[in-house]
Amino acid sequence: MTTICVPDAAAAAALGELAGVDVVIWDGTGAAPVGLDRVEFLVATYSSAATVSAETLAGMVRLQVIQVLSAGVEAWVDRVPAGVVLCNGRGVHGASTAELAVAGISSLLRELPRFHADQVDHVWSPGLTDGLDGKRVLIVGAGDIGQRVAAAVTAFGAAVTFVARRPRADVHAIAELPELLPRHDIVVIAVPHTPQTHRLVDAAFLAAMPDGAMLVNIARGQLVDTDALVAELVTGRLQAFLDVTDPEPLPGDHPLWAAPNVLITPHVGGGTHRWEQRAYRLVREQIVRFDKGEPLENVVLDGY
Amino acid sequence: MTTICVPDAAAAAALGELAGVDVVIWDGTGAAPVGLDRVEFLVATYSSAATVSAETLAGMVRLQVIQVLSAGVEAWVDRVPAGVVLCNGRGVHGASTAELAVAGISSLLRELPRFHADQVDHVWSPGLTDGLDGKRVLIVGAGDIGQRVAAAVTAFGAAVTFVARRPRADVHAIAELPELLPRHDIVVIAVPHTPQTHRLVDAAFLAAMPDGAMLVNIARGQLVDTDALVAELVTGRLQAFLDVTDPEPLPGDHPLWAAPNVLITPHVGGGTHRWEQRAYRLVREQIVRFDKGEPLENVVLDGY
Questions:
Q1: How much is the mean pLDDT over chain B?
Q2: Over the range A15-39, which residues count as b (16 or more CB within 10 Å of their CB) and which as e?
Q3: Pick from A22, A51, A90, A113: CA 20 to 30 A from residue A36's CA?
Q4: Chain B closest CA to A283's CA: distance in Å?
């Protein structure tokens, strides 16, 4: 009998019946529930890394897997006990995060906020705008999200270049960024936040982007030096679509809100109604693998 | 020496130098210019169909080709003299029109206007929204625009079904719409406006769509019965993204403006800065074919 822990009753319902699996419900806050010491497979939320104490984790003597449901796991990566595998939610948020990235890019290029304001005023006022056709898009990160963004923008006439931590065929190295950035109109950040990628997008990175270029961040706010970005936005030299910011939530008096040429959404890339259904489809598959002693998918601990 | 007619000096500049080609500039309004009787290849704008008189057309005794730069040619189709070939701008607007279609769909599903209003108010207020992942998308029209929309929404996790005037492998017949409509969440209209497709989307078509479904029209307003659509929108049963309307421009007092769950853009699907560059790349290629006696691309007259 495998014992797993999920954060709430809705999660248990989304998981459904699984033969030979005992479910403990706990969201990582408050007192440890009965049975936590039997848990082998912990389904953790992004935020529970901050609430599950080291002492409680140490008391989970049978723990073998921490399965996080977000793509990013940086809040958990330093908290994993020895011998425990950390898995992320790769694939759970890929489609919806890529959708938001491209929707944000096209909203800016095609001036959808302006046309929406015209709609509110009942005004029909066509005019030529920018668009993705012919644009050169540099995607930093060649994982699930990056590949989906590439497929869509290619369909809209853009040309894509990939950069990633592990260079390979058709994927350039991070070290090549200084020569690649000046030759691209749009840069999409789609890599995990790690010590190596912290503030990857700094003043020098932004300065290498050509006039009028667009930065897109749908990964983590800490990948970007916010002050450096604000400086480039207020002069009007760059534009940006940001689903994530640093800090987050963005305080009401932060200069990013009022900067020109920026579109901001409040970290909703993966936040669609179906996300939990997708997440627990992954969890079910992982538990079946775990039960059979098969290798797990989405193991990220050794990636850091 | 082939003589061609283009609408303005900007068009002549976009066309560039072509050996053995004489260019006459005329936009179809005012008096016929010197040399019009020598023109073999007429580059026509969408609106010039209304201004070039039948008498003037009859006087163009050497005319062999009318090349329209829009995807739709319904304004020209009844005006083509005997023996003259009518070509459309297929491919010129495909990428940008598909981009706008998908941007409109995602803007509605992901509630981008609401997040933009929050941005204006400096408010960070995340929440779950709808999204394309898992959606069933019915695309009416399997041409360039439809194929590009399909590629993008598939990348975002949606499943696509095609319907077209000519059924073929993986493309259903228009006659199958009554059984297909109830099984789809989003219907994208991407067919030309012809007598056969006039008001294809009528009250019965809309009634067959399930509750909460979305109609997307990026083709021509006359493909949709506007009154029937308004009726379904005001009850809140359907939602819509419309880049084209009937009538167009939409008058300020039209009920469509104030209907709930509708996003309207003013017929800007193909209207990006690069459209003329793309259009005259096509025109150049067509003129080279014409000069060599090769078959032209995008011949649509016999398609009507």
A1: 93
A2: beeeeebebbebbbeeebeeebebb
A3: A90
A4: 18
pLDDT tens for B116-130 read 999 999 999 999 999
Give the tens place of pLDDT for each residue, B141-190: 999 999 999 999 999 999 999 999 999 999 999 999 999 999 999 999 99
Peptide bond connecting A33 to the previous residue in cis, omega within 30 degrees of 0: no
Alpha-carbon torsion (B166, B195, B206, B226), positive or negative:
positive
> What's the rounded Cα separation, in Å, for the pair B217 and B164?
15
pLDDT digit string, tens, across residues B19-48: 889 999 998 888 889 999 999 999 998 777
Residue B149 · residue B102 · CB < 8 Å: yes
Partnered with residue A49 across adjacent β-strands are: none
Residue A51 is predicted with a pLDDT of 84
DSSP secondary structure letter of residue A272:
B
The complex scores an ipTM of 0.90
pLDDT at A304 over 60: no
For A246, the token pair is 């640093």
Show which of residues 253-292 on chain A sit within 8 Å of chain B, judged by CB atoms.
253-254, 257-258, 263-268, 271-275, 278
CA dihedral B265, B268, B269, B272 (to 10 degrees): -140
* The pLDDT value given to residue A46: 72
Between B130, B152, B267, which is nearest A152 by CB? B152
Order of strands across the sheet that contains A262-264 = A171-173, A159-164, A136-140, A186-189, A214-217, A239-242, A262-264
Distance from CA of A111 to the nearest CA of B (A): 10
DSSP-based three-state secondary structure for B85: strand
Interface of A with B in 112-151 (CB under 8 A): 112-113, 115-116, 118-119, 122-134, 148-149, 151
The sign of the dihedral angle between the CA atoms of B251, B256, B257, B263 is: negative
Q: Which of A132, A149, A268 sits opposite B129 (nearest CB)?
A: A268
| Residue A302 pLDDT | 56
Cβ neighbours around A179 below 10 Å, total: 10
Q: What is the DSSP letter of A264?
A: E
